[in-house]
Amino acid sequence: MQSRILIIDDESSICVSLSLALQPDYEAAWETDPIMGLERLRAESFDLVLLDLVIGEYDGLEILREIRKIDPRVTVIMMTAYGSIRSSVSAMKQGAFTYLTKPLDLEELQIYMRQALEFRALNDSVAYLNEQLRDQAQAGALVGTSPAMRSVIRMIEKFRDADANVLISGESGTGKSLVAQTLHFQGKRKHFVTINCSAVEEDRLEEEFFGHKSGAYLGATHDRRGKLDYADQGTLLLDGISDMPPAFQAKLLRTLEEKAFTPIGGRELRRFDTRIIATTNRGLNAMVEEGSFRRDLLYRLNTLEIELPPLRERREDIPLLCKHFIQRSSTLQGKVRRLRGITPEAQELLNAHNYPGNVRELANVIEYAGLVANDEWIRVKDLPYRVTEAAPNADEPEKLLSGKTLQELERMAILASYRRNGGKRKLIAAELGISERGLWNKLKEYDQA
């Protein structure tokens, strides 16, 4: 689909010549009356506006402000025969993409139009991703009533509107990115932008953060904005900061201290107002001692700290998390939509598992079990082997017997044999010394038939 361009200039000859020059690459419309131009913007959708600075008795900057009110997404390029540094700065401050002087160089105009439309597309992508992340943060709302999770939630409430940098630490799968998203979306800042420090190659980190200017190196045919630029007035999440190469740590430290950066190949120093949230699954203090992480960078990042507990240290939250993941999955998987819950026996095994992958592992377990379940309930037979393997074992006989009734011990013995023998009733009956019919009755009683 062609991009739609609206030209607003009081000289009809310029409007006609520009609209002809832009064909067939663009669909161009024009108005010599700025009030009619604004009405057209209200009635139709345009991707880019070419706006004259002086339009008869009207001030183009006033028209620019009205355009921004009507459609904040539309990109505007200002044109004028009366260029001045003051007017160009005013136009840029009020949201114009750039400022060109007449007579226009058509080749230069085409270059700036392409860049402006790319800028709009990238902004739309960032806005869309932020909406997706907002939905994800709400859908994956922090779940738990344990003292550890209540403490985390209290810290989020205290820190959400702070401008200070935040360091979130915890094992893999504990929900560090979700906490970062919750901090951002409950606060007052704008865009949420992420850099995965372990996924970006070392020689591309500088470009990822700072962007580059056209001609900065072979193949750099146009300007590229860096993540710091996109995150201005917002939040930049440095996911896995412990994986950042030592050589780049010094550049990042200097950038955070100066609150300014220069794109590769550029000369202009750009200021930014960005809150940094960093996450790590490794002990940064230990890395400082071994010399692989800068102490001064750590101090710059950990103004505020949130430490997430592993799931094994807040087992009381597991049933709530299971319920949450079942409800969440019901909107994603047609199969899971029928689920009503988890049988007590299966829940007991889920509660006992150590979850080296933490909350992420539990979410995967519930998704798997929901897909293989034959009816409305997740049963022991639906759980992956690594979970059923985690049942209490005979290595701790006193702990195993303590507080258990004879019926409970019988059930545990039958279910343990069921798991060991892969559900094969003949082998289970032989191991337990009971008839297959008696075993069948017991399995029905324990929801394993």
In short:
The protein is of the alpha/beta class and 449 residues long.
Task: Explain this structure.
- The protein has three domains: 4-122, Response regulator (Rossmann fold, 3-Layer(aba) Sandwich); 140-307, P-loop containing nucleotide triphosphate hydrolases (Rossmann fold); 313-445, Helicase, Ruva Protein, domain 3.
- Helix 5 packs across helix 7 (176-185) and helix 13 packs across helix 15.
- Strand 4 and strand 5 (58-59) form a beta hairpin.
- The two termini are 59 Å apart.
- The strands form six sheets. Strands 2-1-3-6-7 form a five-stranded parallel sheet, with helices on both faces.
- It is elongated, with a radius of gyration of 30 Å.
- By secondary structure, it is α/β, with parallel strands linked by helices.
- The protein is built from 20 helices and 18 strands.
- 30% of the residues are buried.
The helicity comes to 40-55%
Strand content: 5-15%
* Number of distinct beta strands: 18
Give me the secondary-structure category.
alpha/beta
General shape: elongated
CATH architecture of the largest domain: 3-Layer(aba) Sandwich
CATH H level of the largest domain: which superfamily? Answer: P-loop containing nucleotide triphosphate hydrolases
- Whole-number tally of structural domains: 3
